[in-house]
Amino acid sequence: MTSAPTSSDAALVLFSGGQDSATCLAWALRRYGRVETVGFDYGQRHAVEMQARQVVRDEMARTLPEGRRLGLDHVIDIRGFGSIADTAMTSERAIEVDERGLPTTFVPGRNLVFLIYAAALADRRGMLNLVGGMCETDFSGYPDCRRETLDAQQQALRLGLARDFVIETPLMQLTKAETWTLARQLGGQALVDLILEHSHTCYLGERGERHAWGYGCGTCPACQLRARGYAEWAAQ
């Protein structure tokens, strides 16, 4: 990989292919002249997202007026990290609450690890803006989704890589219903339909049943959150 000139008009989006990251990608395409994406294979049970993310990317490039700004996609294999984490996201375990009050879908430090890899990649790609779909309004209790955590990570990256990185979190204060509103504002009904049909959120990797809010098992925490947010948005 060759190094690119550093530009403040370039962004690297942490892109899983779910509702939140798709909305963040549309947000970044509106704001930056050059946008690239990065995905992480950490051995997740819902590995179907690795296929779904490519479909969502392709459809967004084709559908959105700003799609021409979409550049390279990068996929990083960190399955070794996933095996260390050993949670309900990476192994056949029940989704429940642990002794800390955290759901067993919590992968310890996942967002922090993602951002370290993303920053290393962004350093070589000449990008200072890292965009992620972390949210502390509608979330599953994950401590690495909090803005306080990400502010500390941003400072650590700036010190450790001697780059003025900015971690952008456009969904941080939005509910899931408000995220649907933002998607419509960014890309109209075409983007909403694209997210409904092609994005993947379900922790169990289920894509056999199509609900009003998209595909999923309908029972895992991710599906329940997405379904509730869509119902609230649709009722407005």
How do the strands and helices of this protein lay out in sequence?
Blueprint: E1 7-14, H1 19-31, E2 34-41, H2 48-63, E3 70-77, H3 79-85, H4 110-125, E4 127-131, H5 147-161, E5 166-168, H6 176-198, E6 210-211, E7 214-215, H7 221-234
Parallel strand pairs: 1-2, 1-4, 2-3, 4-5
Antiparallel strand pairs: 6-7
Helix pairs in contact: 1-6, 2-6, 4-5, 6-7
Describe the structure.
The protein has 236 residues and is of the alpha/beta class. The chain has a single domain (7-234), classed as 3-Layer(aba) Sandwich (Rossmann fold). It is 44% helix and 15% strand. It has helices spanning 19-31, 48-63, 79-85, 110-125, 147-161, 176-198, 221-234, and strands spanning 7-14, 34-41, 70-77, 127-131, 166-168, 210-211, 214-215. The strands form 2 sheets. A 5-stranded parallel β-sheet has the order 3-2-1-4-5, with helices on both faces. Strands 6-7 form a two-stranded antiparallel ribbon. Helix 2 (48-63) packs across helix 6 and helix 6 packs across helix 7. It is globular and about 45 Å long.
Number of DSSP helices? 7
Total strand segments: 7
CATH superfamily: HUPs
Average pLDDT rating: 88
Helix coverage percent of residues?
Answer: 40-55%
Going by CATH, the architecture would be: 3-Layer(aba) Sandwich
Distance between the termini: 47 Å
Give the CATH class.
Answer: Alpha Beta
Percent of sequence in beta strands? 15-25%
Radius of gyration from CA coordinates: 17 Å
Low-confidence stretches: none
Structural class by secondary-structure content: alpha/beta
The CATH topology assignment is: Rossmann fold
Q: How many domain units? A: 1
Adjacency order of strands in the biggest sheet? 3-2-1-4-5
